[in-house]
Amino acid sequence: MRWFRTGGAASSGKGESGVSGVTAGASASDGDAHEGSGVSVPWVRTRLRTATGTACALALLVALTACLAAAFPRAVDRYEDSGLRRAAEQARPDRTGIEVYAPPPSLMETTRFREDALRPDMLAEQDTEVRAQVPDPLVLDRDQSTYGVRTTQDIPVLDPWLPRPTGDPARVTLVAQTGLAAHSSLAQGRLPRADGQVASTTRELEAAVSAETAKALHIKVGSVLHVPPYTVRITGIVTPREPRGAYWSTKTILRTPALIREPLPSIAMYWVGALLLYPDAAPALLADSGKPERYWQLAPDIGALRARDIPALRSAIASLEAGPALREVRREIDGPSTELSELNGSTEVTTDLDEVLISYGRLRESVAPLVAVAAFGTGTVAAVVLMMAGGLTAERRRSELALLRARGASLRGLTARLFAETAAVAVPAGALGLAAALLAIPAGRAGAAVWAAVAVTAVTCAALPLRAAAAHRLVRVHTGREDVASVRPSRRRTVAELTLLVLAAGAVESLRRRGTSGSAGDLVSLAPVLLGVIAALVLVRLYPLPLRGLARPAARLRGAVAHLSLARAGRTSASAVLPLLALLTALTTAAFGGSVLAGVREARDHAALLSVGADARVESAAPLPSGLPDRLRRSPGVSEVSTLSVTFEAKPADGAQTVPLVGVDPADYAALSARTGLGAFPRGELQAAAAGAPAPALASTATARTYGTRPFPVLLPDGSTLTVRITAVLDRTPAVSGPDFLIVNRTALGPAAARPTGLLLTGENLDGTALREAAPKTATVRLRSEERAGYVDSPLQTGAERVYTTAVAAGTGYTVLALLLSLLRTAPERTALLARLRTMGLTRAAGRRLLILESLPQAVLAALGGVLTGWATIRLLSPGIDLTALALPTAEPGAGAVELRMDLPSLAIPAAAVLLLAVGVGVGQAWWSGRRGSVTELRAGDAR
Fold it and tell me: Of 411, 507, 801, 814, which one has the fewest beta carbons inside 10 Å?
């Protein structure tokens, strides 16, 4: 079949739905078109010229969507990588560093061989071989990595001028580490050196010490330390250039001496410091009783760590610690004998970097599904909007495409030309969006970004051809009604809907059982989207029923506006499932995101309140000044002050264990407990007891279980005894945290125990600086706001929240666009109808009411459906989602899960926005059509 030929003149209309562009394109491509031939460029060029505005709008939509899609994986990579690097930095080099150590060669070897094995030249060659065995993707920081020889046991120094806190002599470790000159600055003296070749018989050595070691041990330049069997002269005092770097912090004893306390019951304490020898002096340590060892410190490059490489990094570390890499390292250091058996090698590799990776990997796996929910939701809405854009174009050009089919155009050729026409706009726009994303976020996976942009472009290019192919599969010019009132669901649609229902039910059940641990797969993250799909399909099926029921009563009304608007609303296109799906998915995702953020916010607020006990807390080990409560009450923002007398060493009953005892003013403390929601109680529970009667006390559940409700004595640190009787049991209390506590009236305590040691302050916008200035220097001031801010310190948390918020905002924008597209689809028809009705006497006010009432049923359906779907999603998924990792990553495992919290604003505000937008579009269209003449409107409508 040939495409078609035309010899007549083009029609005069140039609208998008006209056929002038068709005939022009056909004439330009005259003679080239057998079915299956290449797409004609003149057709595409002509179509783009006749619909420049549509092409520009589509290009903008594709570029923006491709940019967002490509930026998402790179943004996730960026905050995940930043979180991993922050976790590695906080773990400090003593945990992240990789240490390779080996003893000196055996005594069976010659003395010369053993000495040469400790010299810098041999260690440097082995260092090169060891670094070569580090598997990818583990990258080493060559500047911070080092090697050398050190003693493994601290050697007592008997010089009497060294400090002795309890009479025990100070001890030192001898370290001959390379790179001292490059990693330190001389504060005094000079660096140590070795005169001649040092051997195992050398007894006189030179050394340097760090400034902190010199200060703590009273060492000066020229000091001589007698370290049996050596005499060590201090030639210099150095200052580390990077004190927190791996060179100095893998073994902190190099820069900071330690005050060691012997285990109880001993009270002995002694100092331990490091003496930094010249590397060539290492052979002298063979005569030492400190058991020297060779070592290589491999510092990982923190900046090269990537979260997506965690499995490979863990495999590399496992290979170094007990795998093929360790076998190769032993072969290089211990010799070929290790090839026979791994047990023959004495070289060992240790690091805690794998524990850091495991801990961070668990946190990342807990956060990733929550972000995936937003990604799937926003991605679904964006895909629906792209398909709606193609559907809108196909609907506008229905008569044009039907005419082409009637004049002999093949379905394959028509689809190919529409694909080429769309691709001419979408491909450059997608490439532009990809480039913008790569420039905006320079780090991250480029491959994932490219595939995301390609997916957006492919959906855009396929939407119009597929929609046109489905509508024009059969050659026909006129079609019957295709509204929800007349079109019945087919069997295929019913099967597809039931399939989606089963998938959604499975996803929800999987999430409720397994949670967001990552084992449930992507189906879990799709659960909110699938719920939105099911709700959209159900609502589209139920949508005609209430309209039919309202149409009959409306027909008996005096005016025709209500009846006409309901009749037209009932004739909405049966393909309205797409805009409704976009609206419901976006509203559900926004509600889910709002509940996530609300749950995180509430969990952090509650955790900060539990930690502080009020809006601010002032406490001290010593009694506070008597006038301090009045001074703090006058501070900015302070409304209430509750005085506490806390004794942590109170011993109830037989004195086998201590329990915190808190003396309070009943009225103030009862009001504070009720206000904070932490263990509220009636103020009468702590009323003063009669003389000789036991004092009433409030107790925790654990304390009440231990001591019961019978009176029992409590021994106070000052030697006095207070007899109490537990009258009420509380789960928690603002004064102290922990499973055990007793709360009594302050008047029941003696003068010494009743002195205030803590204050709980209530107020808004408390000034921490003013409170610290008013409090004594020995007191600690903690603010609830500062405590809460401390929970948001990880790039993984803040990055995930930022990406989630951006995804929800983008989904909201696409929701608005979907609603506009659905209204624009029927805008020409509504405009022509309004013009016809005006010729019959319809007023402008009635026209506005007609358009508003016509658009309200769909808007109300979407708004109510979105609210109900969002509410149901949160209720269904809340038991299976744990937000602890996102809200409180440092929480104890048994602290309890942080669940979703229903957030009414995130449910109501988007739904209200949908209603307002629908009303606004109706009012705007009525106003715009009123500015144009009825003849113009009728011509525009007839042209369509």
Answer: 411
Q: Is 300 helix (H, G, I), strand (E, B) or coil?
A: strand
Verify that 88 and 2 share a domain, yes or no.
Answer: yes
In terms of Cα–Cα distance, which of 124, 150, 448 is closest to 284?
Answer: 150
My answer on whether 818 and 879 are in the same domain is: yes
Beta-carbon neighbour count of residue 335 at 10 Å?
12
What sign does the CA torsion over 571, 576, 579, 583 have?
A: positive
The answer to whether residue 237 is domain-embedded is: yes
Residue 616, in any domain of the structure: no
Look-up of token digits 């027909």: 555
The confidence score (pLDDT) of residue 50 equals: 67
Lowest-confidence segment of 48-62, 375-389, 470-484, 833-847 by average pLDDT: 470-484
Contacts (Cβ under 8 Å, ≥6 apart) of 496:
none
700: β partners: 730
Q: Is the pLDDT of residue 944 over 80?
A: no
User: H/E element holding 139?
Assistant: none
Query: Domain ends where: 455, 476, 497?
Result: 476
Q: Does any domain span residue 451?
A: yes
For residue 925, tell me if it sits in a domain: yes
- Report how far Cα 204 is from the mean position of its chain's Cα atoms: 58
The residue with tokens 């000159």 is 181
What residues make up the domain containing 347?
A: 98-351
Q: Which ranges in 840-903 belong to alpha helices (H)?
A: 844-877, 884-887
Kind plus residue range of the DSSP H or E element containing 448: helix 446-471
**Per-residue pLDDT tens digits for 785-801:** 888 877 766 788 788 87
Cβ neighbours of 328 (radius 10 Å): 18
Bond into 265 cis (ω within 30) = yes
DSSP assignment of 676-719 equals HTSS---GGGGPPPPTTSPEEEEEEHHHHHHH-SS-EEEE-TTS
| Other CB atoms within 10 Å distance of the CB of residue 890 | 12
> What residue type is assigned to position 86 of the chain?
R
pLDDT of residue 343: 44
Strand partners, 383: none
Query: In the structure, what pLDDT confidence band is assigned to residue 424 with cuts at 50, 70 and 90?
Result: confident
CA distance 924 to 176: 82
Sequence letter at residue 391: G
pLDDT digits (tens, 9 = 90+) for 483-493: 555 556 667 77
Helix or strand or coil: residue 232? strand
CA-CA-CA-CA torsion for 521, 526, 531, 532, nearest 10 degrees?
180
DSSP code string of 782-843: EEHHHHHHTT---HHHHHHHHHHHHHHHHHHHHHHHHHHHHHHHTHHHHHHHHHHHHHTT--
- Is the domain of 458 the same as that of 493? no
What is the spatial distance between Cα 68 and Cα 660, in angstroms, rounded to a whole number?
Answer: 55
* Final residue in a domain of this structure, among 778, 810, 837: 778
Q: 311 phi and psi, to 5 degrees?
A: -60, -45
Q: What is the mean pLDDT of residues 809-820?
A: 78
Q: pLDDT class for 550, splitting at 50, 70, 90? A: low
Measured between alpha carbons, how far is 700 from 733 in angstroms, rounded to an integer?
A: 8
Structure tokens at 387: 């398909």
How far is it, in rounded angstroms, from Cα 321 to Cα 100? 9
Q: Are 82 and 196 in the same domain? A: no
Same structural domain, 321 and 258 = yes
- Residue 349 — pLDDT band, cuts 50, 70, 90? confident
- Do 236 and 333 have their domain in common? yes
- Phi, psi at 455, each rounded to 5°: -60, -45
Asked whether the predicted pLDDT for residue 310 surpasses 50, the reply is: yes
- Dist CA 427 CA 57 (whole Å): 14
The conformation of residue 140, written as its DSSP 8-state character, comes to B
Q: What is the CA radius of gyration of the chain?
A: 39
Closest alpha carbon to 686 in 664, 707, 704, 703: 664
